[in-house]
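Residues and backbone
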Amino acid sequence: MDIGDILALCKRRGFIWPSYEIYGGVAGMYDYGPNGTAMKNDIIGSWRRLYLIGEGFVEIDSNTIGPEAVFKASGHLDEFSDAIVTCQGCEQSFRADHLVDGMHPNPDSLSLDELQAVLIENGVVCPDCNGKLSDVGEFNLMFKTVIGPGSGRVGYLRPETAQGIFVNYPNLLWFVRGRLPFGTIQVGKGYRNEISPRQGVIRLREFNMMEAELFIDPKDKTWPRFDDIADQKLSLVPQDGIERTVTVKEAVEEGIIANQALAYFVWLTRRFLVGVGVDPSRLRFRQHLSTEMAHYACDCWDAEVELAIGWTEIVGIADRGCWDLSSHADHSKTDMSFFRKFDEPVEMEVDRIRVNFKSLGPRFKGQAKSIATALEAGDPSDVIDGIITVTVDGVDHKVNSDCFEVIRVRDKVTGERFIPHIIEPSYGLDRIIYTCLEHAYCKDGEGYIALKLAPSVAPIKVGVFPLMGKDGLDDMAQDIDRSLRDLGIRTSYDDSGSIGRRYARMDEVGTPWCVTVDYDSLQDGTVTIRYRDTKEQTRIPSSDVPSRVSTMLREGLLTWADPLSINK
């Protein structure tokens, strides 16, 4: 199978079209046609039901443009780069790690110097003109813009949806009434100025993401439903590179996956992907090597699928630790902590700030009392290089260490503050859609093509055909079509061409069932229902079509409100 065959079908049948094609197109940009949009919305709907209803997460929708300070704090300004080389002849640019595919088992793990060495050792030249390549450098992938007229304020298109959730953590914590753990999801666009997009929709400059962020106590990364799925099996490739199949429980007990929460969401990801049509025999989870781990992650697993182009990441499940909230707290001077209240006060040694009034009074005069109160309520961990900043009446005051000292005392405390950790399953929606299409693609020896899509994501659920578009057959077929639509079931009414051609059109877009009204239908009230995967045809009363299709949809769909239903 070739990726070109899939993309040709996608264009022909209205799944995916090249963006701006009448102007020559833009690399790394695609549009979704009517069938692609329907399939995309079904996948999003299934994912939402899994997280919002199944796991009790909440959803937000944040801006796609952010000020520079956000991405300085997130690390994207400093860390979000790919290795680039440029041809000194034709001046085309390429990702260095792409040029060494097949020359190293994991090019993503190589440093710039290591990539440079592999390129030189293998005599790699420009793939377009055989010209000499520049030395390997770094290229930041974010799209830069200006917010407002004139010089304005520097901003960037977001490279991920996650930061919109992190900066809203104080609002979210208030919304969930100050409890942990809690989860938030977001669906939306991300933007990455890829150096050399390739492989169709696998690498895009504008793409769709579905991200979930679980805020969790770092001292308690258990998960309440873990025992329910503990015996489910996962195909894992840990850092040692040896693929193995183990239960979720074994993965945690043997230290392959760090904690229950991370393991649960690895399993939940598998459950979702299989539910929307990913072939489980071509799905595995690979742990990131330490050399390829993102700057924010303390552990990360990729859901990888086998495609015509090889094993490809479509979801990343990361334990981001407290990196994000801590960094935003430092840069924005906003409290991103959580207060854990003890069942009873506990006597323990704690650090306190003690004010030196002899120095503080003369320096701050009339404001000394207010500043002293702010100092005594302050957190000693905020002291940096002997200076602490306190805010009084909306004004920041830098206080030097000659005005205070940090002392250790024994005191009864009612609780403690900490920065929550974050477990993040991040889903690449476009890659998931493409994977479902490729894994569903079937072509027989005579060139007949069918997409065996899961009913949950098939863009058209039922084709409705009158044998002829006259003699009342069309009226009966239109009545059936309307009864299905009234139930919210997407249909395609078609009265043109032979029945065989109509079946072929429906098979190519993955329609699970077709209903045909013929002349016998006018006599006995029965119609033919055809099943895509088996080609079996049976007669049923026309009045039974809505309930029969609804039942088949329920049986074909997982019960998304209950993530454990896959076991039943």
User: Anything to note?
Assistant: Residues 558-568 have pLDDT under 50 and may be disordered.
